Amino acid sequence: MYKNGTFHIENISAKTIVNSTGTPVFVYSKAVLYKHLNAYLNALRNHPCYCTDYTSHLLCYAVKANSNLSILKYIASQGAGFDIVSAGELERVLIAGGSPDKIVFSGVGKNYDELKKALDAGVYCFNVESEAELFILQAIAKQVNKIAPVSLRINPDVDANTHAYISTGLKENKFGIDINQAEALYHQATQCSHLSVKGIDCHIGSQITQLQPFVDAADKILNLADRLMSAGIHLTHINMGGGLGVNYADEQVPSITDYVNALCNRTGKRKLRLLLEPGRSVIAEAGVLISRVILTKNNGYKHFAIIDAGMNDLIRPALYGAKHRIVPLLDEGRDTANHYDIVGPVCETADCFAKQLHIDLNKDDYLVILNAGAYSMSMASNYNSRPRATEVMVDADQWKIIRRQETTEDMLRTETPYISGE
Ligand code: LLP
Exposed/middle/buried for 380, CB within 10 Å: 0-12, 13-18, 19+? Predict the structure, then answer.
């Protein structure tokens, strides 16, 4: 949003932030985070929960989308739960004040220590993805004399119509338990002394921009849930996994309310609590990545603007061919005949944020890469030994650094220079 020709995050000028923090810097808007998170929470509140064990549905924010402690703390303060996939994420959620009885633990390869830590913490449910995991969990629970609450993640074989790398609900994908094997495994789970069957779940993929795949998956899962319940297996929840995609470039995406309504309507008056694990749609639009043009370059064939953010800061364009809109920090209406490829400094041709952007650019101009709140900083790396960027949170007319930029010292801390014989 521009005010007086300068990009603002809420009431704060982006110029004020970069003058103080330098670049690259991720800036998040608390108001936008509030808006999307509460769109989910309110839509869920509007549907009665007919489950006999719980009085309300549950939102579990997918921590992997953005795991900054301040963001998690804010999400916890709004009453949401969390979907975690590692002991690291568990630790983050607990530090941020998340309540264990609102944590679901997903992931296709949870290891012994992770399962044990989550059992010790008393998480709400383990989303189990294989027969092997079910029996490992039973063994650990028996060892520590605890009952592990479980849901089986079902692979419904539904095409999410999304990028192949983030499509997870097809037979050929590594995720979940084949829908045809699930019933037998549920019966085995009920026989396990230290497991308590709680629910059923699925997650068919991410950046899904239509409701139909979600509805198709819900129908398959609900059909299975009905069969299980009539066979005497007591399920308390259905977890439909991640949320909607977002509009990065020109995608048409249904509203969060329509998405929640569609799933609640499908669930109907069944005695089930609905769980959702959205990540991207909660935080993507709340974040921008601001970067400075280090230099421009004309190779006689093309113009390039080389910026100080790289694929190590935001890997989505390089990895998925994602297109994030890019706008100038100062909207001065400068005209240009030139088109620029916006590229980072990393030594890979894939380190490219946009091709042939029609924008006037000079050295030291700033660019704002939009919708960079999700799967951006959480996927950042130190590739090329580049320190990870600063993160800032804006709240109305206040702003604060919520993660300082890494230093070279931070990056080297865990290494020991060694050659054999020394
Ligand atoms: N639940 C499970 C079990 C998941 O695996 C995921 C995402 C989510 C929930 C959250 O889904 P969402 O609401 O964010 O769509 N790095 C990729 C996205 C990977 C998604 C992985 N799983 C990207 O940048 O597009």
Answer: buried
Question: Residue 113 pLDDT > 90, yes or no?
Answer: yes
Instruction: Evaluate if residue 327 carries a pLDDT over 80.
Output: yes
Peptide bond into 156 cis (omega under 30): no
For 67-80, write each residue's pLDDT tens digit: 999 999 999 999 99
**For ligand 1, what atom is nearest to the CA of residue 208?**
15
- How many C-beta neighbours within 10 Å does residue 417 have? 6
Antiparallel, parallel or unpaired: β 339-343 and 352-358: antiparallel
SS3 255: coil
Alpha carbons 199 and 272: distance in angstroms, whole number = 9
The pLDDT, as a whole number, for residue 337 is 84
Locate 282 and state its tokens. Answer: 């909660």
DSSP, residue by residue, 244-275: ----SSS-----HHHHHHHHHHHHTTSS-EEE
pLDDT of residue 35: 98
Q: Grade residue 272 by pLDDT with cuts at 50, 70 and 90.
A: very high
Ligand 1 centroid – CA 205 distance (Å): 7
Residue 353's H or E segment, with its range, is: strand 352-358
* Annotation marks residue 347 as catalytic: yes
CA-to-CA distance for 80 and 276, rounded, in angstroms?
Answer: 10
Q: What is the pLDDT of residue 240?
A: 97
Give 167's DSSP letter.
Answer: B
Let me know: does 234 contact 197? Beta carbons within 8 Å.
yes
Q: Look at residue 323 and give its three-state secondary structure.
A: coil
For 179, the token pair is 């829908």
Shortest-distance Cα residue to atom 24 of ligand 1? 375
Distance CA 14, CA 33 (A): 18
Average pLDDT over residues 30-42: 98
Cis peptide before 24 (omega within 30 of 0): yes
Residue nearest to atom 9 of ligand 1 (CA): 242
If you measure from the C-alpha of residue 242 to the centroid of ligand 1, how many angstroms do you get, rounded to a whole number? 6
Structure tokens at 205: 């993929």
CA distances, 355 to each of 205, 222, 321, 342, 351 (Å): 27, 44, 11, 6, 11
Phi first, then psi: give them for residue 74, nearest 5 degrees.
-65, -45
